[in-house]
Amino acid sequence: xxxxxxxxxxxxxxxxxxxxxxxxxxxxxxxxxxxxxxxxxxxxxxxxxxxxxxxxxxxxxxxxxxxxxxxxxxxxxxxxxxxxxxxxxxxxxxxxxxxxxxxxxxxxxxxxxxxxxxxxxxxxxxxxxxxxxxxxxxxxxxxxxxxxxxxxxxxxxxxxxxxxxxxxxxxxxxxxxxxxxxxxxxxxxxxxxxxxxxxxxxxxxxxxxxxxxxxxxxxxxxxxxxxxxxxxxxxxxxxxxxxxxxxxxxxxxxxxxxxxxxxxxxxxxxxxxxxxxxxxxxxxxxxxxxx
Amino acid sequence: xxxxxxxxxxxxxxxxxxxxxxxxxxxxxxxxxxxxxxxxxxxxxxxxxxxxxxxxxxxxxxxxxxxxxxxxxxxxxxxxxxxxxxxxxxxxxxxxxxxxxxxxxxxxxxxxxxxxxxxxxxxxxxxxxxxxxxxxxxxxxxxxxxxxxxxxxxxxxxxxxxxxxxxxxxxxxxxxxxxxxxxxxxxxxxxxxxxxxxxxxxxxxxxxxxxxxxxxxxxxxxxxxxxxxxxxxxxxxxxxxxxxxxxxxxxxxxxxxxxxxxxxxxxxxxxxxxxxxxxxxxxxxxxxxxxxxxxxxxxxxxxxxxxxxxxxxxxxxxxxxxxxxxxxxxxxxxxxxxxxxxxxxxxxxxxxxxxxxxxxxxxxxxxxxxxxxxxxxxxxxxxxxxxxxxxxxx
Lengths: 291, 394
Description:
The complex is a heterodimer of chains A (291) and B (394). Chain A is of the alpha/beta class.
């Protein structure tokens, strides 16, 4: 399989990948390296992992990072409740201490979290580590170790080595700068807002029944909106929501009804300031130019 | 004629060419090790390496690490591999060759003059010594980008960085108000969260197995520094760049930019653990150093791009500039207003303010004044150190 095949396969799943992205993804798979995707919110970074899992017909395991994410949430945790129950029950049955200990620190009492789960699959899954820049730096360091060794050591059980190597995709959107070490370990692709032609292709792939005139207007409008001064620039997902809203309302021409356009802007503009910045006249002007 | 670079007959082979390319990238500020070279060669075996587009995409995925690097990669690639059919003689730079080619004006044998001025500052012998000035941007129309490169390593010494680091660290501390009255759930913390301990102990039969904790959250203030390196500021650049370098090392959340006719983000470059190498990388980023200044346009660009991501109510934007702008003053005023709307505090440090009888009459400075939280003088390191008191009050 070459990188063009991967690009075609992804297109069949409804994801239009740029050359940069398809190549980076293809190399990440061939070289067995993690891939770091960076770009603004809403350009389809997370979607890459979902589509890749579909292309490879494998499972997607997702780890959503957040501030304060710890090993217990990301790797594994002992099931304390069950362990306590087992201890209580054992006390009544008169089981010896060492037997109880061996039992409660076995696989049955282990709660798998995404990272451990990902390396214990029979078929290599896609592991998505979403918004890595939100996690703390200490977690990043921990992650580095796992990504290079693909093994996890649990003091009570010993070292668990990967049965299969997951395909790892990390996403970041610049909440903080990532460490050099992590960047060096990964291949890199920057995902940008798509250009007009690409966005049109995405829209056609996702909403197949859409009229040519409306599709062109929607993409033109959203592209123009991105050049306006906004707090939150609408991403591809918002554009698709907007298109779905318009076709759901049975609109065939963006310029036909200013009020409906203004109402459907709720799918694109998500803060009050942004709504205020794009009053009806501005929206009309943009829509008029988009045609 | 083909655009592809022709390699000399004695060229040892593709591996060496890739190694040469990596050295070329390293010369342009990308941080790549031996591991990446091996990976690049391996990556090329997975694609049709003879196709320039495929080769570029593959090398780009391996060699780049941030958006800025991606943006410049195509040019770097073309410069090495598609050099208009020119023969590239030396693929692997040998150690002796690298010392020759490295732009180190400290060891260079330039024409000596009697003046004691440095490359960018006039000597203080009353204008009699022959000064080598690189700031011809002051005379040439400032619309032209000054492409002359100035070696920043010649402007700033390691000792400067060390001194500046101390000052920067103190300022960073003064600016950061870490105290918060509230406590929040946390992994590690001084206090037990008794309420949650009790609640969670119910699920383990009254035994407190999990011990949730609380702590006072860290509320760091992010310092964003923008330094003017236009022609009129060159003599202060030494202090300011050392200060920025110090700030970047002292405060891991800080962010730094240079501007002259363009805006350049230098945070990544300045974080380099080797201070002098950081400045070397900066030199590569900052072509146009000592040219004209478009403060308004640069700040406007900052407000429209980086500020959206990095500047919020907990940020302090420090602008180091003399306020001599070639743009109309309204541009500067509007840019500051936009920045201001993000809720940040803006501090303007002007080296000229220290002069006796200085009044902010430069049109740009006058337009900026109403938007500033603090306007102070800063021409030397001791001036910067003296700001500590005032920064605590911000």
